[in-house]
Amino acid sequence: MDSPRVEYIPQGRWIINMPVNGFFLTQIDKAQRSIGKMGEYAGNLLGKSVAALMAKDPVLAREVIQGDDDLDRMEDEHEEMIIHLIALHQPVARDLRRLVAFLHTNSNIERVGDLAVNIAQAAIRISDVPSMRPFVDIPRNYEVVRAMWDDSLRYFDGLDDAAASELRVRDDEVDRLNQETILQLINISRDHPDKVFQATNFIGVSKALERVGDLSVDIADEIIYVRRGELRHARSLHKHTA
Predict the structure, then answer these.
(1) What are the DSSP E strand ranges found in 110-234?
(2) How far is Cα 84 from Cα 74, in angstroms, rounded to an integer?
(3) Which pairing describes strands 13-17 and 5-9: parallel, antiparallel, or unpaired?
(4) What domains are there in the chain, each with its CATH number?
(5) What is the pLDDT of residues 146-185, one digit of tens each?
(6) CA–CA separation, 130 vs 110, rounded Å?
(7) Cα–Cα distance between 191 and 103 in angstroms, integer?
(8) Which of 13, 118, 183, 202 has the smallest C-beta neighbourhood within 10 Å, fewest atoms?
């Protein structure tokens, strides 16, 4: 029989974490792997949406919109699985933090699917409009954001809090790129009123990509919460008061 594990909680209390059966741990690992695959699927939808935008391909864009239904189904299945594990096994300490983080990550991944749909809808709207400047800097923004997203999933797979903590720094670059892109599009709209419709859609795409960067950071925060028991807002408050 396994011995009880003692774990320190950041608030300064010690608790006894009683041993859990192997089935429970196996199910936690299964949930983590499944959520990771869902994240990969969301990343692929995001890539397709940007490809549809650049190729002016409404057929590919509609595939993205249809694919989001699969993400919604996966989100529901994961949520049901996690709630069942919490209710049945009543985990504490790190095991509970892990499942709570999975719930949040599951939701964040689903939101990436929604953002991919937003980009796909923009691709459909401008598919028959002559291109202005080769898609401004959207491809560059996508590459930076996609790298962040893929890394957040890799860190999630290994619950690598040290690597995850660096994503917030990388998100500053995404914010800068988004601001530069929006400024370019505003200038294009001012100088070429006939391009306002396209520019408005590209602004929406740029903002959607910036939001994917934010969601990558949110997953990183969940990893840190699992490993260190630190809440995101509590860390921010500590930094400001230190």
Answers:
(1) none
(2) 15
(3) antiparallel
(4) 5-241 (1.20.58.220)
(5) 999 999 999 999 999 999 999 999 999 999 999 999 999 9
(6) 32
(7) 46
(8) 13
